[in-house]
Amino acid sequence: MVKKISNLREKLQSLVKTYKNAYMQGAVADYIPALAEVNPKMLGVCVATIDGKITGAGDYQQPFSIQSISKIFALVMAMERLGDSLWQRVNMEPSGQPFNSIIQLEWEKGIPRNPVINAGALLVSDVLTSHFCASKLAFLTFLRSLADSDAIKIDNHVYQSELSHGNRNAALAYLMKSFGNIESEIPDLLSHYFTQCSIKMSCQQLAQSLLFLANKGVNPRSNKLICSPKDTHRINAILSTSGMYDQSGEFAFSVGLPAKSGVGGGVVAIVPNYGVICSWSPPLNKFGNSVAGVNLVADIAQELGLSIYH
Amino acid sequence: MVKKISNLREKLQSLVKTYKNAYMQGAVADYIPALAEVNPKMLGVCVATIDGKITGAGDYQQPFSIQSISKIFALVMAMERLGDSLWQRVNMEPSGQPFNSIIQLEWEKGIPRNPVINAGALLVSDVLTSHFCASKLAFLTFLRSLADSDAIKIDNHVYQSELSHGNRNAALAYLMKSFGNIESEIPDLLSHYFTQCSIKMSCQQLAQSLLFLANKGVNPRSNKLICSPKDTHRINAILSTSGMYDQSGEFAFSVGLPAKSGVGGGVVAIVPNYGVICSWSPPLNKFGNSVAGVNLVADIAQELGLSIYH
Amino acid sequence: MVKKISNLREKLQSLVKTYKNAYMQGAVADYIPALAEVNPKMLGVCVATIDGKITGAGDYQQPFSIQSISKIFALVMAMERLGDSLWQRVNMEPSGQPFNSIIQLEWEKGIPRNPVINAGALLVSDVLTSHFCASKLAFLTFLRSLADSDAIKIDNHVYQSELSHGNRNAALAYLMKSFGNIESEIPDLLSHYFTQCSIKMSCQQLAQSLLFLANKGVNPRSNKLICSPKDTHRINAILSTSGMYDQSGEFAFSVGLPAKSGVGGGVVAIVPNYGVICSWSPPLNKFGNSVAGVNLVADIAQELGLSIYH
Amino acid sequence: MVKKISNLREKLQSLVKTYKNAYMQGAVADYIPALAEVNPKMLGVCVATIDGKITGAGDYQQPFSIQSISKIFALVMAMERLGDSLWQRVNMEPSGQPFNSIIQLEWEKGIPRNPVINAGALLVSDVLTSHFCASKLAFLTFLRSLADSDAIKIDNHVYQSELSHGNRNAALAYLMKSFGNIESEIPDLLSHYFTQCSIKMSCQQLAQSLLFLANKGVNPRSNKLICSPKDTHRINAILSTSGMYDQSGEFAFSVGLPAKSGVGGGVVAIVPNYGVICSWSPPLNKFGNSVAGVNLVADIAQELGLSIYH
Questions:
Q1: What was the pLDDT predicted at A239?
Q2: Is residue B245 annotated as part of the catalytic site, yes or no?
Q3: How confident is the model at residue D196 (pLDDT cuts 50, 70, 90)?
Q4: Alpha-carbon distance C34 to C28, whole Å?
Q5: How far apart are CA C89 and CA C108, in angstroms?
Q6: How far apart are CA B247 and CA C102, in angstroms?
Q7: To the nearest whole angstrom, how far is the Cα of D134 from the nearest Cα of chain C?
Q8: Measured between beta carbons, which residues in chain C are less than 8 angstroms from residue B175?
Q9: Is pTM beyond 0.90 here?
Q10: Is B193 marked active-site?
């Protein structure tokens, strides 16, 4: 169903030109000072396909702060480690609330609505912190192996900045702990969470690392099973209903791909049986999604006839 | 990607046997007295494919109250009539709330989160009531044409019962009107809404009527364009994120098809480029979805390898 | 404990001068068009004491729309008619929400938090509508008898305007009916409610009519028991915790008297064992309370050493 | 207006007998293990008057955990230290929510509704922690001076138990910090808060310590001004609208005195110009108020004709 495009590279380069000035329509995340230091004009996009092709344009090889995109990798690790019992501690429903809302967490008695809003990601961090003896190292090792690159690093400056501006995440974590849904000590859990958010990867590295989600769980480069076909299905379902914060419905409506964004300006979209698109542009819209990043993915999906809903 | 099954009819018959006693795990909707009168043991399922095949088992030719499944047809009519301006009056985000919640409607200043929760469906009814000179007739005519059957009727007993137990829907409608988001007189709007909910159709009729959503907007039997490919995409997206009430995320997670349920016990699921599954069993789970209906669709999807997320 | 002031009239006249321009700090209620037609510069104040003295200044004999001040009289009638069973249908807790909020009503399953927010007043209207054969007439008769004046009238222009802009109140009423907490037909109940809100009385008439609340339930002019000492206590308690909308706490904190305001710009304050203060100035603050009205009452209470909290 | 009772002691003794078995209607607070260890049959009551009389019955000289009653003393200290700027950081409105709710705190952007719900008391603790060099010692010294007794102590066992079960309070504090409304480090603030909650005092000590609130701010024993008449008024107003958790309206309605309860089972009620009543019985009702404690205060108020609302 995917249209073949002989000149994908030219197409991506043309799109990068089109959105060169889109950065002016958004605002770089500034609630964490270190994130505000990034150059808002950075713009990149990369398409990795399960047959091994990598096509990119713009700053697609420039590492950036992956932020909430890390939630996908953490979820994969927690699903593998806990099995189905994970879903007794976190739900899989869209939230209908801003990503950092504490109201719903109180209503639902400490059970986060899904693993990709902040409360749910903190719960996943709790699983990793309490089930791995060195969860940060395990996480970094997992990413390096997926991206096949030892160059992937934690940005310590961003990490420190997150840590000193993490009061709302601490509130979410303590509230879950008051409901008995957290096992670790909160400072350990937060340290893990901010570490995984502070990792830097490029569009190319992200797109390649996530190919297993477009390939029924198998990393097409290594031929290794990263997660079961069933869990791959589940992750794509969650990303489809909840991956783009409180703009997830609109993204499904107008683009139609499982996707996840991060406040660092990255957007990844999974195209089952085809590949992964990753775009990056730091300025965000009011939902916390990259303005140009969303537009780039939408245009590529449109151009290639990619969508799971038709 | 759909697995071929030579003996689909036997498979469906076997599933109907499997779920013969599942009715005991749910409760027939009783907030509308007339709905409570239905025989809880009724159980049917039908698969209609875009190549014209109809396969059914159990009570699949028995008409039942379509209730909220009518929201799909009403949405198609409103989208056709209003075009994109519809989306200024109703959003397309999952709600994260029970289907009849009034809280979120107040928060969002009278703009319903999506057109398939009650508030949104009432908004769509307002569009039909104020843009068609005889909206009930137009609606019935549309359904009869889609199902190619003049036998489709309104159940007047259910209609009267809905009307006299419709206070919460009246509250939702008046609240939207207080925000200036309703044009019709509320009694007219409610009369239209309860009329469309009170229509009776069988699994077979529903499955056939919705084939256009699996076929890029074209009714495969008449070859007529019912809605544009773009709007077909949008409707399937909304059904995927929000069609199964506050169990939509779990349905995506475990089944993976655009779907809609009604408190009459019907469930329809769209399989793009393949067909439509419709099941029926009156007893509902706590989310308002048919217990056996959801299970039947899940098993068929599993058996045939149907899902949009892998 | 009340300080004697020989020249109360001069004091009131001086205060009326002081607040002559306070109307510019607020905005006349405009959600009901007929209310927006009032002259914003009107300003009056009256003190009636249980020993029979009436002292006023400014436009204190000019009738104005009593609006929510009518809730006190309706409550007295409903308490008398239903006895303690009233408190199974409405609570007596402060709401912590705007006066017309529908959110809390859903949370509390159709039981209003107290009888002086809109939901509670609609519930009281239901009691009157269903327990009096001609509730509007009974209400008007009660007021005329309390004020000893047959000149008290309903403003039909305001009534019609309320009726055609009453969608939010209709939503509240239908929501309560959906929870089984309303007996009347909603249009009857709303008609009664908007009638009682549309009555016009002057500061003097209001102050005199409410003297029984400062006198253990006895109207000092007629010596008739209007409500029992126990119910008088209860009404004063409710007015103290909830009478000034979502500014009730601040009013207790800075003034310290049981009080009730209306969006017509009136404010009444009860001084147990002394009398009643009533002020009027149409422009409202963000809570829906008269800017100058609140200031006038505060200054008089300060001047005379009136407060129940010291 | 207070009725004289020659035999107050006999009256109190008789009431203690009456409520001997009331402990069976409630449940001792058990969310903090150390609190659950108290003997549920303890029952005491004491009336201290501004003319120096102390009358008690039952276990009125037995120290118990004062818990939230400490919020009054902390508020007095913070008002004295910060002056009116305190009210920019905490509101004075009733909350209409359970005492430990985090929902409202999010709505109101980190500004607690009043200083006697948990969020507000944590804010007050922040003021003390950041404005006193040794806030715990200062607090204890203040209480010892008010009660004229060096025997008042912190129960270290309760303190440790609170500290290890304080996750919800930590969540509230971190949420306020995320809104920029907290100056101290959260662990310091919590340590202060749990310390003040863990102080043990008897009914007699509490009643005597709070006499200044019944005496326009002056401690009648030492003749020292503890807080200004204006601030005394304000505190009594806050206790009247919000002191008894989400039962404050009902307490005003049926008793009519400024009051505060603690989950240790204590209740204090201020009678302006007369004195203070303090009762104690550990088992609590669903609002977190002592069952027998509330009844004892209500009966004494009734017997002596005490209420501020008539």
A1: 98
A2: yes
A3: very high
A4: 11
A5: 11
A6: 25
A7: 30
A8: 102, 167-168, 171
A9: yes
A10: yes
Domain range list for chain B: 8-304
Secondary structure in 3-state letters for chain C: CCCCCCCHHHHHHHHHHHCCCHHHHCECCCCCHHHHHCCCCCCEEEEEECCCCEEEEECCCCCEECHHHHHHHHHHHHHHHHHHHHHHCCCCCCCCCCCCCCHHHHHCCCCCCCCCCHHHHHHHHHHHHHHCCCHHHHHHHHHHHHHCCCCCEECHHHHHHHHHCCHHHHHHHHHHHHCCCCCCCHHHHHHHHHHHHCEEECHHHHHHHCHHHHCCCECCCCCCECCCHHHHHHHHHHHHHHCCHHHHHHHHHHCCCCEEECCCCEEEEEECCCEEEEEECCCECCCCCEHHHHHHHHHHHHHHCCCCCC
The distance of A16 to chain D (nearest Cα, Å) reads 37
Nearest to C103 among B103, B174, B177 (CB): B103
Query: Is C90 among the catalytic positions?
Result: no
Count of Cβ atoms closer than 10 Å to residue D68 Cβ? 22
How close, in Å, is residue A105 to chain D by CA atoms?
Answer: 9
Q: Is C305 on the interface with D (CB under 8 A)?
A: no
SS3 D220: coil
| CA-based nearest residue to B73, from B174, B191, B213 | B213
3-class SS letters over chain B: CCCCCCCHHHHHHHHHHHCCCHHHHCECCCCCHHHHHCCCCCCEEEEEECCCCEEEEECCCCCEECHHHHHHHHHHHHHHHHHHHHHHCCCCCCCCCCCCCCHHHHHCCCCCCCCCCHHHHHHHHHHHHHHCCCHHHHHHHHHHHHHCCCCCEECHHHHHHHHHCCHHHHHHHHHHHHCCCCCCCHHHHHHHHHHHHCEEECHHHHHHHCHHHHCCCECCCCCCECCCHHHHHHHHHHHHHHCCHHHHHHHHHHCCCCEEECCCCEEEEEECCCEEEEEECCCECCCCCEHHHHHHHHHHHHHHCCCCCC
Which tokens sit at D10?
């006999």
Q: Which CATH superfamily is domain B8-304 in?
A: DD-peptidase/beta-lactamase superfamily (3.40.710.10)
Average pLDDT of adjacent 10-residue blocks, chain C of 310 residues: 79 96 91 91 98 97 98 98 97 85 89 96 98 96 97 96 95 96 97 98 98 98 96 98 96 98 98 97 96 98 94
CB contact under 8 A, D174 and A174: yes
Cite the active site residues of A: 68, 71, 193, 245, 263
Q: In this structure, are residues A240 and A93 in contact, taking their beta carbons and an 8 Å threshold?
A: no
ipTM of the complex: 0.95
Contact between chains at D113 and C96 (C-beta distance less than 8 A): yes
Considering the candidates C23, C47, C60, C68, report the single residue annotated as catalytic: C68
Choosing from B76, B245, B261, B297, which is the catalytic residue? Answer: B245
**A177: nearest Cα among C288, D167, D267, B4:** D167
B237/A94 CB distance under 8 A: no
